[in-house]
Amino acid sequence: MIRIEDVTKRFPGGQEALRGLTLSVDRGEMVFITGHSGAGKSTLLRLIALIDRPTSGQVIVDGQNTARVSRRKIPAYRRQLGMVFQDHKLLYDRPVFDNVALPLIISGIGYRDAGRRVRAALDQVGLLNKEKRHPETLSAGEQQRVGIARAIVSRPKLLIADEPTGNLDPDLSLEVMRIFRRFNEVGVTLLIASHDLALIDQLGCRRIPLENGALQVEKDRDEVSDYFEGAGAHSPEDRWR
Amino acid sequence: MAVSKTSEPIPAGRPAGPVSAWFLCHVNTSVDALGRLARQPFASLMILLVIAVTLALPAAMYLVIKNAQSIGSNWENALDFSIYLKSDVTLEDATRLAGLIRQRADVAQVTLISAQDALDEFKSASGFGAALDHLKTNPLPHTLVVRPSGANTEQSMILLHEEVGNLPEADLVQVDTEWVQRFHAILDILRRAIAIGAVLLGVAIVVIIGNTIRLDIQNRRDEIEVTKLIGASNAFVRRPFLYSGLWYGLGGGLLALALVRYGLYALEQPVRRLAGLYNSAFSVLELNLSESLLITGTGVLLGLAGSWLAAARHMRRIEPR
Questions:
Q1: Cβ A108–B226 below 8 Å, yes or no?
Q2: Model's pTM, two decimal places?
């Protein structure tokens, strides 16, 4: 689904956010990109979303080489993706329903159909009764779920999320991850940047650790487990059932 | 396909027909833009007023010219000229001459004012009646007032003047209508000046609306970024701003018509009084339908132009970061 081939991203200042990164994500996978801030997680997602272009190397998404997506085709390209952001990026001047409907309106889907799909998406994130509320009246976790509903309402095959739980407490984070997991179970490919190692480990998904813009040398599995025990996480099974 | 185990799948959402969806989208965007203006009534009204005044100025000047022209056109038809006959021409000769001239193809009508009639009228109208009674002889000549036929051109009029002026009985041909032509020449200059002014004011409207939309775009920068981030094209993001410009232009145009209408209403009484003093049935000409449409349409076009310029310039620069 995603192939990153020898990608380097150098910013005008000369610092390199990604150095010769190569990785791939299969269709239907749920993969976490981890690493400290500055490791290149966000930059990688930005390349996939075509907010930025790589300095060199290739980013291939769903068989599409992003280098060949012209500036004018970027909107159509982005409509195939679902994107979730740490700061939700909701529009605070309109109710939840309108926020979630936005991708459908952009795609020119009729309002009647849009209504059904928006409610279905809200239902999936458990916010069906909040469609008339304004985002600022919702809690952070609810706002993030609105953001997720917006990302999935156009039923993308690929969903990318940049620190989706960055602002949430552990319980809310887990709730969000559960929602992601449910999408994954029905075939959506997810690529999630997060530094919440404790949470990720509970999910048992593949991790791609980044360090200074490149793949981190694989840590010893035990070392990782030690880290979680130190963080005092419950057993994954407890939290997931 | 079910996306969730626990809840309804997201329905496939068969897209509405492309045309109706497109149409609905436009209707929604335009209503939305209108609502946005209505939510800031004072600011919107200020902008509408500026646009309305700017549109009303040339419109009002145009109306002044139009009315002046309509007064002038009555005069233009009156191309009558007078032939003062030599004082030794008798009334019989004068009557015969009037008959002759009347037979010309380029003459519609000839009226003979005899010397006696002229004197009587002068006595009664001038107030010198008593003084004139002391005159032993009538100093006034017989006069023929000639109304040329409507088919005359400027050239044939000159020829007519010359020919009757060359008649042995004619003393003087007096043409009263030259100043009418000068008046029309002045109106032409004024009309052109107004056209130039109108163009400048139109540019001003484009700038005003463009600037307003630019501020609007800056205020909604975040929103634009987010919508672009989830796949909105430039056209989609631009659309609400174009509609704002359109509403500004339309509102300004209609308000301009109202201003002009009110100005006419305020002028109606004094003009009627003045016309009454001149025994004239003159009434003020108003903007007709096509002129009103032109003003409103101009407002709309300028509004669109202003918002288009602002949107094209600033929208491209706002990209998700």
A1: no
A2: 0.73
